[in-house]
Amino acid sequence: MQKRLTQQSWFRILALIVALEMIAFSINFFYAPINVAAGGATGIAILLDAAFGFNRALTVLIINIAMIGLAAIFLDRNTVRNIAFGSFLLPILLYITPSFQLVDDAILAVIIGGAVFAAGIAILYRLEASSGGTTVPPMILKKYFKINSALSLLGIDMLVTFFNLFVSGTNAFFLAAFSLVVTSIIMRYIETGLDLKRQVQIMSNHKLDDIQAMLLAENISMTVYDVRGGYTDDNKTMLMVMVDSSNYAHMLRQIHDIDENAFIVTTNVTEVHGGRLGY
Fold first, then answer.
1. Could you tell me the residue ranges of all domains in the chain?
2. What is the pLDDT of residues 161-177, one digit of tens each?
3. What CATH class does 197-269 carry?
4. How many CB atoms lie within 10 A of CB 212?
5. Which own/partner pairs from 255-260 qualify as long-range (CB within 8 Å, at least 24 positions apart)?
6. Three-state DSSP class for residue 205
7. SS3 of 225, please?
8. Please, which residues have CB within 8 angstroms of residue 4's CB and are 6 or more apart in sequence?
9. Quick one: which of 77, 89, 142, 183 could link to 114 by a disulfide (CB 3.0–4.6 Å)?
């Protein structure tokens, strides 16, 4: 048991390092070379580097230390512990990771950089960790003023993005705004798209037994519900199955072959945990 916990701890640390290096990679190879600041402490660092030549890694370190101080004052120890590792390691990775323009096209740089950055942040979320920085003020605002943390974080990122106008010009501003969209879309896909399944509820007036037999023959587990019609007040039976997206169309076609009037409701499910649902 102790050995397993140790392995899990080392795996978590390795995953944290990989996630933070992905963020550093996206900044040093895609955003910073074209002076595009798309929010966060790293965005502030890019702006100060472009305007005054300040070292980006040092700027991020100073901001993160200040945010750890705020978290220590206004938040709990567990939050401070969760952000401390990333807050100190990210500036180190920014410093030791080379920095040069990897692609010439600015739009392509924003797309690739946004994808890499989003993947790194998504991994941190999965690990319940953080790179610190501007993620701290939204947590404080949520705790004391009940302000949605996602909205306040978006507001901070938009403010940083706005300052691109004064530092790097209009093109950088629109590229940074586009980057926020790219990052948001890719993060949502990473968080919900890797285990996407369909929850399907099936009702049939006369051929539900045949549909159930077909599903069992296809080795699709199911749950059977006793329901009551809202219009007729009749007792009915409903099947609920969980299938991969790749198998959904095939199953739907087979149901319609049995009963073309079958009532089917489908819902996207982002994650499924545990064993089979059939009893």
1. 2-193, 197-269
2. 999 999 999 999 999 99
3. alpha beta
4. 18
5. 255/202, 255/211, 255/214, 258/204, 258/207, 258/210, 258/211, 258/214, 259/204, 259/205, 259/206, 259/207, 259/210, 259/211
6. coil
7. strand
8. none
9. 183
